[in-house]
Design goal:
With 151 residues, the protein is mainly α. It contains eight helices and two strands; from the N terminus they run E-H-H-H-H-H-E-H-H-H. It has a two-stranded antiparallel ribbon. Helix 7 crosses helix 8.
């Protein structure tokens, strides 16, 4: 068992796009003017800013930021905040004692695993799934203890 870092690029892109869009509005600029300055289409830039289109090339976000006079230092700070979407998760390849791992699993690890498994990041859905999982674990523990005591 070991930990690995998982980067949620979609969430980072959405965060950066949102922050740049807020700065764009504060500076009284339009998406159209930004697109023209970058020699990109307005729908493409709009999709990036609204988190509807993601890219693994984060340079476009830096170019957008610098174009609307966000300093490189300000962008680096923005990017540091976006890195909250980097998770450290347990990989299950070499687990010797799965029960021990489950006991020590962090809430963030569990939510990330559930969001991947069920294809959702909706907090309410994930909480419902976790509640059901806790219920099933309690059932299993009760049955397991009963079986041991009956022997």
């Amino acid at each position: 068992m070991f930990k690995e870092k998982i980067v949620n690029v979609d969430a980072i892109c959405k965060y950066l796009g949102n922050q740049i869009y807020r700065e764009l509005e504060e500076r009284w600029k339009t998406v159209m003017s930004l697109a023209e300055q970058l020699d990109k289409s307005q729908p493409y830039i709009s999709d990036l800013l609204n988190g509807k289109r993601n890219t693994s090339n984060l340079d476009i976000y830096k170019k957008m930021a610098l174009t609307i006079w966000i300093t490189e230092k300000e962008f680096e700070e923005m990017f540091k905040k976006a890195k909250k979407y980097e998770y450290e998760v347990t990989t299950w390849d070499t687990i010797s004692d799965p029960i021990d791992v489950l006991k020590n699993l962090s809430l963030a690890d569990l939510k990330l695993a559930l969001s991947r498994e069920f294809g959702t990041q909706d907090e309410a859905v994930l909480n419902d799934i976790m509640s059901y999982a806790k219920y099933k674990i309690e059932q299993w523990n009760t049955k397991f203890l009963k079986d041991i005591l009956d022997k």
